[in-house]
UniProtKB/TrEMBL annotation:
Similarity comment: Belongs to the class-II DAHP synthase family.
GO biological process: amino acid biosynthetic process; aromatic amino acid family biosynthetic process
Protein name: Phospho-2-dehydro-3-deoxyheptonate aldolase
GO molecular-function term, one example from the UniProt record: 3-deoxy-7-phosphoheptulonate synthase activity
Residues reported in the UniProt entry to bind Mn(2+): 68, 350, 392, 422
Enzyme class: transferase
Catalytic reaction equation(s): D-erythrose 4-phosphate + phosphoenolpyruvate + H2O = 7-phospho-2-dehydro-3-deoxy-D-arabino-heptonate + phosphate
Binding site for phosphoenolpyruvate: 107, 264-265, 287, 318
Pathway: Metabolic intermediate biosynthesis; chorismate biosynthesis; chorismate from D-erythrose 4-phosphate and phosphoenolpyruvate: step 1/7
Cofactor detail note: Binds 1 divalent cation per subunit. The enzyme is active with manganese, cobalt or cadmium ions.
InterPro entries reported in the protein's UniProt record: Aldolase_TIM, DAHP_synth_2
EC number: 2.5.1.54
């Protein structure tokens, strides 16, 4: 494939790009990034594509999640382990309670750039550029921090490398061993209803493992888990610089992450993001909000998955609890009728954000659950496969979303509101949701 095609996006309008003060500096940084080693490998991306093909065929379920916006200061062993622990616990709940293979994808090791609904933020009469993620500018509300700095692209690469290294060590080195199901819950068990419910399930898993061991299964089977990394491919100079030609196939892969997605604000058919993503071989996603028409979805398939290859394209539906039951069916019907085999997964976070009276951005766990329920209802009615969930959560005990076992109310939000962008489920809310999704899956299939 001609390498020029990887730059064809440069002639098209690119939404949500930073206003870099010195564009020449971006070119210099991109040259440095282009010389750095890949963060992920093409063969791993192919493996994920094959697993997503199983999802598209109705044989597996995706659990994708992590922070809305990762931060450089969050690339620590504690933060990464806590997030991973939550993901592993959720995935065990889904695998065991719903009896389905779970494809685990972190919003981790690269989720450093944010699209914003407004380019500026105003506080007490002072107007500054909006925070666009640590890859672009700083969170602090000063002119200095908010000025986009291309040096941050390099820092993002290094923070992603550190995070990925920790993820690989935790998932391959024994921490994720299924025989550790109780250990992941140790700091949590007595403290929350979700922890206690999980502990009961972990007991059942123990007995199942003991049975399999007695029956001759190889314990090594349970020693490792495969975790993939993902982020929104937003800052195109970064993604382009990390795109390499795979020596085995001669095809381009964006080696900044295994799975990359196009956001709701950058999925314009004639825009730079769709053009760039057409040419990379990674499995990719597109977020689809409530205004998406079936024609939009079909046109995206034509551009991004012209060969109709199962596993290549995932639609991440984020309609809002009030819209999903009406807005999703025409998309699923027409896409299915077209013969395309996409994976459908549900992001129940981004269509359910609202501002509390105190000014905090928040989400109700009930709305989140209702959107997932609506997503399952639609697929049940149409006989198609509800292929997964895409969530924003953290391993920490934050107070960012309302509801859940500890019943966080709007007046509690200030207590531990730590997100750099959108409100995340805390560990207990995330586990509550996993139990609910497992139950829905079991009764749908
Ligand atoms: O995930 C990100 C947010 O939904 C997106 O950045 C928009 O948030 P904003 O409305 O605060 O800009
Ligand atoms: C910005 C995000 O989502 P969306 O593009 O769906 O609004 C996100 O996933 O953080
Ligand atoms: Mn978000």
């Amino acid at each position: 494939m001609p390498v020029d095609l990887l730059d064809s996006w440069r002639d098209l309008p690119a939404a949500q790009q930073p206003d870099w003060p010195d564009p020449a500096q971006v070119g210099a940084v991109a040259d440095q990034l282009a010389k750095l080693p890949p963060l992920v490998f093409a063969g791993e991306c192919d493996q994920l594509r094959a697993q997503l093909a199983a999802v598209a065929r109705g044989e597996a379920f995706v659990l994708q999640g992590g922070d809305c916006a990762e931060t450089f200061s969050g690339a620590t062993a504690d933060d990464v382990r806590n997030k991973l622990k939550t993901l592993l616990q959720m995935s065990v709940v889904l695998t065991y309670a719903a009896s389905v293979p779970v494809v685990k994808i972190g919003r981790m090791a690269g989720q450093f750039a944010k699209p914003r609904s407004k380019p500026v933020e105003v506080r007490e009469g002072v107007e500054l550029p909006a925070y666009r993620g640590d890859m672009v500018n700083g969170f602090g509300f000063t002119a200095d921090e908010r000025t986009p700095d291309p040096g941050r692209l390099l820092r993002a690469y290094h923070a992603a490398a550190v995070t990925l290294n920790l993820c690989r060590a935790f998932t391959q080195g024994g921490y994720a061993d299924l025989r550790q199901v109780h250990a992941w819950n140790q700091d949590f068990v007595a403290a929350s209803p979700a922890g206690r419910r999980y502990e009961r399930l972990a007991g059942e898993i123990d007995r199942a493992l003991a049975f399999m061991h007695a029956a001759g299964a190889d314990p090594e089977e349970f020693h490792r888990v495969q975790l993939y990394s993902s982020h929104e491919a937003l800052i195109l100079d970064y993604e382009r610089a990390l795109t390499r030609i795979d020596s085995r196939s001669g095809l381009p892969y964006d080696v900044s992450g295994h799975f990359l997605w196009i956001g709701e604000r950058t999925r314009q058919l004639d825009g730079a993001h769709v053009e760039f993503m057409r040419h990379i071989r990674n499995p990719i996603g597109v977020k689809l909000g409530p205004t998406t028409s079936a024609e939009d979805a079909l046109a995206l398939i034509d551009k991004l998955d012209p060969e109709r290859e199962p596993g290549r394209l995932t639609f991440v539906i984020r309609m809002g609890a009030g819209r999903v039951r009406d807005a999703l069916p025409p998309l699923v019907e027409k896409v299915t009728a077209s013969g395309a085999q996409v994976a459908w997964i549900c992001d129940p976070m981004h269509g359910n954000t609202f501002e509390a009276e105190s000014g905090y951005k928040t989400r109700r766990l009930d709305d989140v659950m209702d959107e997932v329920a609506g997503f399952f209802d639609v697929h049940r009615a149409l006989g198609t496969h509800p292929g997964g969930v895409h969530l924003e959560f953290t391993g920490d005990d934050v107070t960012e979303c309302v509801g859940g076992g500890h019943e966080i109310v709007e007046d509690d939000l200030h207590q531990r509101y730590e997100t750099a962008c959108d409100p995340r489920l805390n560990r207990s809310q995330a586990l509550d949701l996993a139990f609910m999704v497992a139950e829905m899956y079991r009764t749908t299939k």
